[in-house]
TrEMBL record:
This is PLP-dependent aminotransferase family protein. Residues 32-100 form the HTH gntR-type domain. One of its GO terms (molecular function) is transaminase activity. CDD domains: AAT_like, WHTH_GntR. It comes from Pelomonas caseinilytica. Pfam families: Aminotran_1_2, GntR. It comes from the Bacteria. Keywords: Aminotransferase, DNA-binding, Pyridoxal phosphate, Transcription, Transcription regulation, Transferase. In the C-terminal section; belongs to the class-I pyridoxal-phosphate-dependent aminotransferase family. PANTHER family: HTH-TYPE TRANSCRIPTIONAL REGULATORY PROTEIN GABR, TRANSCRIPTIONAL REGULATORY PROTEIN.
Length: 498
């Protein structure tokens, strides 16, 4: 109904709203739905104490009749007020202003932050705090060379919006059911075709959709690594969230150094002989943080070791869609092994949008059946709306084109980023041909974590090597998509005295 018909309620005094407020709402040309505008008006009145605690609001019928709006509009406005904790609905009595809605936190000085460094050495919580800031990067920063995602303006916003509209126009009754614990079947069928392109032949029944790669790793740990003290192999360096997840359940982590062509297999063999680990978590393509790829000869030797020592390989291919394309460009374990000893993990969070949490894992029928059981017990179903959105992007061909554009932009930036680091006397351990990470040594005597803390106080977010490996205290991971923006490199140069 037209907002011109909105008129003051005769019981508006019970609202403690003045007539002028409703008149202004009726005459305003403000944008937004009538529900949103009523919500804004009433919530502002509650927060400003024009409506006092405990006041009974007009009924839906009375508000609709007195203001000349539909009852549906009035009901939805009240529902939104309830959802925001401003109003409560009492069965058989009506709607009342909640006492908690108008509480005010007294102004006080923020608590003084404890020093991140102790005189006797490194505070053990420093790395965790910095990692959380890198992961969330909620506060604005002058530069963000340390973040683990692509910049916000690199997202394909137009195609994502179109996919969301298509999902919204679809049959929403599917949301009335829990759905398949393994995830949206059409997306799993689309993933079957995608994985076939890399040489991995897997039935949709042997795929599980997850809320990103981290959720997939959690599912693997929950399903197969439940005994405290059990030995598990991880690469060094590796992503910190993997280490924290495995240590949180009391697993014993054994580190395997990452070389230019893959993990150090001699160290891996020694660990297998001495500790009999059950799993090895490995990046085959665009290893985080080094950007290295697994060489074919290392892949075959690793699979032979896995067979010799009955080792399960958890292959994290989160960045795989940013890898170079073409025959022999990258080597993955899952296509070589066809999921006999490999669990393959992928994700769309790095390429589509970090907030659109959709990942997947592929495994043998026996392992999938076991993991699906745990999935159903701990998470009744995955994110159906996000999965349907990703399905639309993949099925329309938009995603393939988007990844091509991402690879092209990164290819353009990479040599310039390496050149800028070299000018500062910073040596890159490896010059990757794809991805958005550079792993670089700041210098033998540089404490990268202390430097990162200093730069953070100036508004520059960096990723020191100690977050990824205690053996790399002088290293930093640089995001080439963000490191050339802002004043981050000049600030780093000043901090290094270069």
């Amino acid at each position: 109904m037209s907002t011109s018909k909105l008129r003051p309620s005769r019981d508006i005094a019970g609202f403690s709203l003045v007539e002028a407020d409703l008149a202004a709402l009726a005459e305003s040309g403000a944008h937004g739905s009538l529900v949103d505008r009523i919500f804004t008006l009433v919530s502002s009145a509650i927060q400003s104490r024009k409506i006092v605690t405990g006041v009974r609001l007009p009924s839906v019928r009375q508000l609709a009749d007195d203001c000349g709006i539909s009852r549906d509009t009035a009901a939805r406005a009240y529902d939104k007020l309830v959802a925001h904790g401003l109003v409560e609905s009492r069965r058989g009595a009506g709607y009342f202003v909640k006492a908690a809605a108008i509480r005010r936190v007294p102004d006080r000085a923020p608590p003084q932050r404890p020093s991140l460094f102790r005189p006797d050495g490194l505070d053990r919580t420093t790395a965790l705090r910095l990692r959380l800031q890198i992961q969330r990067h909620e506060q604005p920063a002058q530069s963000r060379s340390g973040i683990g995602t692509l910049p916000e303006d690199w997202m394909d916003e137009q195609d994502i919006a179109a996919a969301l509209r298509t999902v919204a126009r679809g049959n929403q009754r599917a949301l009335a059911t829990i759905g398949d614990p393994q995830g949206y079947l059409p997306l799993r069928q689309r993933l079957q075709l995608k994985l076939q392109d890399m040489g991995l032949h897997v039935d949709p029944a042997h795929l599980i959709l997850t809320s990103g790669a981290t959720d997939a790793i959690n599912l693997v740990a929950l399903s197969f690594l439940r005994r405290p003290g059990e030995a598990v192999l991880v690469e060094q360096p590796c992503q910190p969230i993997l280490v924290e997840r495995l240590m949180s359940v009391g697993l014993e982590l054994l580190y395997v150094p990452r070389e230019a062509d893959g993990p150090d297999l001699e160290v891996l063999r020694a660990h297998c002989i001495n500790y009999k680990p059950r799993c090895f978590f490995v990046n085959s393509t665009l290893h985080n943080p080094t950007g290295m790829n697994l060489a074919p000869h290392k892949a075959f030797q690793l699979l032979k070791l896995a067979e010799e020592f009955d080792l399960m390989l958890i292959e994290d291919d989160t960045y795989g869609d940013l890898a170079s394309v073409g025959n022999g460009a990258v080597t993955r374990l899952a296509p070589l092994d066809q999921l006999q000893r490999v669990i393959h993990i992928g994700s769309f969070s790095k390429t589509i949008a970090p907030g659109l949490r959709v990942g997947y894992l592929a495994a043998s029928p026996e392992r999938i059946e076991w993991m699906a059981t745990y999935r159903a017990l701990n998470c009744l179903a995955s994110n159906s709306l996000a999965e349907r959105t990703v399905y639309q992007l993949l099925s329309q061909g938009n995603y393939r084109h988007h990844c091509e554009q991402l690879r092209a932009r990164l290819t353009d930036l990479r040599p310039r980023a390496i050149e800028q680091l070299q000018k500062l006397g910073i040596r890159t351990a490896h010059e990757p041909d794809a991805g958005f990470y550079l792993w670089a040594d700041l210098g033998k005597d540089v404490d990268a974590l202390k430097l990162a803390h200093q730069l953070l106080s100036q508004g520059h977010l960096t990723a020191p090597g100690i977050l990824f490996s205690l053996a790399h205290p002088s290293y930093m991971r640089f995001n080439i998509a963000t490191m050339l923006e802002g004043a981050g490199l000049p600030a780093l140069a000043r901090a290094l005295g270069r």
